[in-house]
Amino acid sequence: MDPFWRLIVPATTQQKSLMDIHPRELKSFVGDLPTLPIVFQELFTRMQDPNAQVSELAEIIAKDPALTTKILKLVNSAFYGQASQITTISRAVIIMGFQAVRSAALGVSVMEQFKNLESASEEFDIPSFWRHSIGVSCLAKQLSIVLSVNEPEDAFVAGLLHDVGKLIMLQHFAEDVDDLTRAAAEQQLTWRACEEVLFPTNHASIARALFRAWSFPANVVEAVSCHHNPEAASRHATLASLVHVADFLSYHMECPCPGAVPPRTHAKDAAKLIDLTPDLAREALERATDELDEALEILKLLD
Hints:
This protein is mostly helical. It is 62% helix and 0% strand.
């Protein structure tokens, strides 16, 4: 187990099964979880201030050389398609905007924490997981653009992080994950349906507890928490609906999530909320498919 995770999960919970963890216990499960490194706390807090200066943000990020390197690597990737090389955080913020740099920092922070899970399970394929996550992020972003709802960067990062709860399950309950994936295959169930049968909690609720502990933006937390039931979202139902529909459409662009069968349908209320039509869905799917290869460069951050 990564030393970081040894610090954040009490020894008594490391040995538990997911069958033993009630939803009310999730807060205590991550109760010993420290917030992200101070640089992320400072960055996300400062970015919520409309009067924040570019120089302030650059100074905060510069405190962490590894973060600086990874953000610059991401913003210079083919996915962002910059005409010239961006060599400083200040220039990245000026050219790409606060939202894009915040999204990059959110994505980097989470991918860093879960980059060493390759051997955790025989049944769950990590490269396929990240391909699915990136596919959903592209679709959520393109749906946001095509439908003119929400900030595309918020949609992108919520899509990228929507299934992180599964990685927490894998990190701490690998045997349970193996049992779930085998049962899903045998019974032809989706991951979410299999969770309902086997465990008192689910990956979306686990991610919500983690992201709240890490003080992530409220819209991202709720979209991830409600991506299977966007009608339950109280303040950010549109963003949750974008991620929900993107998750469904990802199976039509060869980006299935490993370990379970595809969902047969999506929530009609979610499609109605974002005014989705078949033609607009096809357009977003085509645009996301065209973007996918470039977006997969994000996986180089795991190297």
